[in-house]
């Protein structure tokens, strides 16, 4: 197609049409990725245990792109129990409906879904009601229809901070699962380590490492005697010379 022959308005319109078609294509890609993930879980592909591996070998996708499609599939598609065949509705039905209708690009869907998940996490922790979380999902989805991903991300962050101004508090299980120190392989005589600790653990650790790293004895602040002055037989406390 000779795009140079298009007028400015026609070029913009054509780009918008392509973007709309791309949104439909992305929805189909997510749908088939979710279907293939279910087949992998059922053990229908020899030697493949993870859906990302199947998407990588069959579609030549990188792990990042495969993970994005599977992430949306997990949140936007209903889940069928393989034993009871009972179907659980999609975790984010409002955003899913807009995505599969071709109203959202994959990037905007990922952005809205990420903040919707944070809002539902607040509801699960009892910090907000389920009704508030559902309403916020509809609000974020509405913004996703008209905003670019960067603007949508700012709106989502502002919404989460408004709902939880003190910050999201992890559950006890999350604290136990995440905390710990991990040591890397020695390299050039140094060992790199990183990890997570609760605030009380951090304070205790800093107190211990502080004294260990600076072990020198400190002078008693209540002792006013000059430690540099040494007593001698010729020096008396009254300031007189001990010799005639």
Task: Name the features.
extended; mainly alpha; two-stranded antiparallel ribbon
Layout: helices, strands, pairs:
Elements: H1 8-41, H2 51-59, H3 63-76, E1 79-80, E2 87-88, H4 93-100, H5 106-124, H6 130-146, H7 149-163, H8 172-178, E3 180-183, E4 193-196, H9 199-213
Antiparallel strand pairs: 1-2, 3-4
Helix pairs in contact: 1-2, 1-3, 2-3, 3-5, 5-6, 5-7, 6-7
What does this structure look like?
The chain is built from nine helices and four strands; from the N terminus they run H-H-H-E-E-H-H-H-H-H-E-E-H. The protein has helices spanning 8-41, 51-59, 63-76, 93-100, 106-124, 130-146, 149-163, 172-178, 199-213; strands at residues 79-80, 87-88, 180-183, 193-196. It has 244 residues and is mainly alpha-helical. It is 57% helix and 5% strand. The longest helix is centred in the N-terminal third of the chain and has 34 residues, at 8-41. The mean pLDDT is 85. The strands form two sheets. Strands 1-2 form a two-stranded antiparallel ribbon. Strands 3-4 form a two-stranded antiparallel ribbon.
């Amino acid at each position: 197609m000779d795009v140079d022959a298009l007028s400015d308005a026609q070029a913009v319109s054509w780009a918008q049409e392509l973007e709309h078609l791309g949104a439909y294509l992305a929805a189909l890609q997510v749908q088939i990725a979710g279907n293939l993930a279910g087949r992998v879980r059922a053990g229908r592909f020899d030697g493949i245990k993870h859906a990302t591996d199947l998407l990588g070998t069959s579609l030549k996708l990188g792990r990042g792109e495969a993970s994005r499609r599977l992430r949306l599939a997990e949140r936007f598609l209903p889940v069928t129990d393989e034993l009871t065949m009972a179907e659980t509705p999609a975790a984010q039905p409002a955003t899913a409906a807009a995505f599969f209708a071709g109203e959202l690009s994959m990037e905007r869907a990922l952005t809205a879904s990420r903040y919707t998940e944070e809002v539902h996490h607040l509801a699960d922790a009892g910090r907000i009601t389920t009704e508030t979380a559902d309403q916020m999902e509809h609000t974020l989805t509405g913004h996703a229809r008209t905003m670019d991903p960067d603007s949508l991300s700012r709106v989502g962050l502002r919404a989460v901070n408004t709902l939880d101004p003190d910050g999201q508090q992890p559950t006890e299980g999350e604290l136990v699962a995440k905390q710990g120190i991990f040591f890397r392989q020695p390299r050039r005589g140094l060992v790199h380590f990183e990890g997570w600790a609760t605030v009380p653990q951090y304070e205790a650790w800093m107190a211990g490492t502080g004294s260990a790293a600076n072990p020198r004895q400190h002078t008693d602040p209540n002792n006013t005697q000059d430690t540099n002055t040494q007593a001698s037989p010729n020096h008396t406390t009254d300031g007189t010379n001990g010799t005639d």
